[in-house]
Amino acid sequence: MTVFYVRQYLEMKMSLEVLQTFLGWCTVINYSLLLIWFLLFVFARSWLYQMHSEWFSISDANFDVIHYVLMSFYKFNIFLFMLIPYIVLAFFI
């Protein structure tokens, strides 16, 4: 029984093409989520502020700053951990 699991584990290798495809789709999905967040912030800002102000005591200016900082942090992490490795795998390996 144990030999079967070891053999099955050894056969499940990730190729560079699979990793590149995975990173590409992760990049597309995460940038889509960022775009939805941005569109909600632009077109439904009052609804978002009303919803968040019910949970937290937050000023209008702090609400804008928090969303702006978190969007830029999320965008930076997508770029750093998904887009750059995808570009490296696609063009340099």
Map the helices and strands.
Blueprint: H1 2-11, H2 16-43, H3 45-55, H4 60-91
Helix pairs in contact: 2-4
**Count, helices:** 4
In total, the number of strands is: 0
What fraction strand? Answer: under 5%
Order of helices and strands: HHHH
Categorize the overall geometry. Answer: elongated
Instruction: Provide the domain count.
Output: 1
Please give the largest β-sheet: none
Rg over CA atoms: 20 Å
Q: In angstroms, what separates the terminal alpha carbons?
A: 38 Å
**What is the mean pLDDT?**
90
Give the proportion of residues in helices.
Answer: over 70%
Low-confidence stretches: none
Write a short abstract of this structure.
With 93 residues, the chain is mainly alpha-helical. It has 4 helices and no strands.
